[in-house]
Amino acid sequence: MRQTICLVFNRIASEQEQDYEQEQEHGEKESVMTTNWDEIFVGRDAFVKRLLEVKQDIFIFGARRVGKTSLLKFVEKKSWENPWTDNAAAFYLSIQGYSTSEKIKRKIGICFRKRNVGVGDNLFEDFSFFDFLEELDLKLDGLEHRVVFLIDEAEQISEIEKKEPGFVERFRNCVESLDSIRFVLTASPHFKKVFAKSHCSAFLSAFANDVLPVMTRNEIQALIGQLMPGIGAEEAEEILEYSYYQPYLAKIFIGKLLQSRQLRPNLERVASDAYITNALDGIFPNYFEGLTREHQKIVSEIHLGQFQYDETYETRLRELTQYGYLKYEAKEYKISNWFFNHWLEEDSRRHREKKKPRPPLRPVVLKRVASM
């Protein structure tokens, strides 16, 4: 299985190099194909509708580049096709880099002005962040209007908590008490683990939790069937096992890895680009860098076969297994799946190449040119 995947990768790389050479010879260059997340999300329409109905507050977790930001902006756009009536009025705001709740309040004011929503300047000037939300909720309730704040980069909440102790608890109480305001937050899955452990798990319990992409097991299997006609149940299950770390990997390119000749030619290119861009350059570096140096060292040593087990490592090993970095099989800790292992191999190779001594520069001999 793994040999098959590696062979396919090598063949694809070789074919892409040949294609590039041919393009250069003919003076032509194809347009770069990018992944269209709108098309590959199974269940996206139903999920967007659920966000627009704002019957509950939702915390969405998803890896880097999985499409959290584009999803929130799409929801905002859809909400303003018919605001204040069928849908809630949605406002997108990224809080990345924000260190105080006052900055979030100011950002909401900017969002309101952008949409020509007037609620009175005194609402922003005379009240603190949480008092402002309560006053806004009363105004909206009187108008029978609903608002949903689409908050991106919600990892920043932990930084605000450091500056304003008690912020998390007050935010949770606010989420549970407001009637006409809903919150949709996005963050990485790693943040969910860290936040629940080091801060307040009760805060997360105030939200319905979802993980992007929004796919059920049956939906993944159905899509694999579309990508790979005639695939058996056991093979489909094996694909799910290999893509366990991020289920959506199965949707984009996994079919190509095993039976690429059955796919449409343009899908092969998209699949290959998606793997390189979203897995090797996006997802796994994001998760790996999210670990402490001690955890990174354990993962690297296990990958290289250099790890020496000691009871003092047991807690960290259990955490890494729980987070999805490792798996425990036959009384041995291993890298959780083929994709993560492949990224570690590529990362190690890049580091080795950087450390290689550069060949010495040849001395340049300057020759005197005889004057005419």
What do you see in this structure?
The protein is an alpha/beta fold and 372 residues long. Among the domains are: 39-211, Rossmann fold (3-Layer(aba) Sandwich), CATH 3.40.50; 291-349, Arc Repressor Mutant, subunit A (Orthogonal Bundle), CATH 1.10.10. The chain is 58% helix and 9% strand. It has 18 helices and seven strands. It has helices at residues 2-26, 37-40, 44-53, 68-79, 101-114, 121-125, 129-143, 157-163, 167-177, 189-198, 201-205, 217-227, 233-242, 248-259, 265-289, 293-304, 314-323, 338-355; strands spanning 58-61, 89-94, 147-152, 181-187, 208-211, 326-329, 332-335. The strands form two sheets. It has a five-stranded parallel β-sheet with strand order 2-3-4-1-5, sandwiched between helices. Strands 6-7 form a two-stranded antiparallel ribbon. β6 and β7 form a beta hairpin. α12 (217-227) packs parallel to α14 (248-259). The chain is globular and about 65 Å long. Mean pLDDT is 72; it is low at 1-40 and 255-267.
What topology does this entry show?
Elements: H1 2-26, H2 37-40, H3 44-53, E1 58-61, H4 68-79, E2 89-94, H5 101-114, H6 121-125, H7 129-143, E3 147-152, H8 157-163, H9 167-177, E4 181-187, H10 189-198, H11 201-205, E5 208-211, H12 217-227, H13 233-242, H14 248-259, H15 265-289, H16 293-304, H17 314-323, E6 326-329, E7 332-335, H18 338-355
Parallel strand pairs: 1-4, 1-5, 2-3, 3-4
Antiparallel strand pairs: 6-7
Helix pairs in contact: 3-4, 12-14, 14-15, 15-18
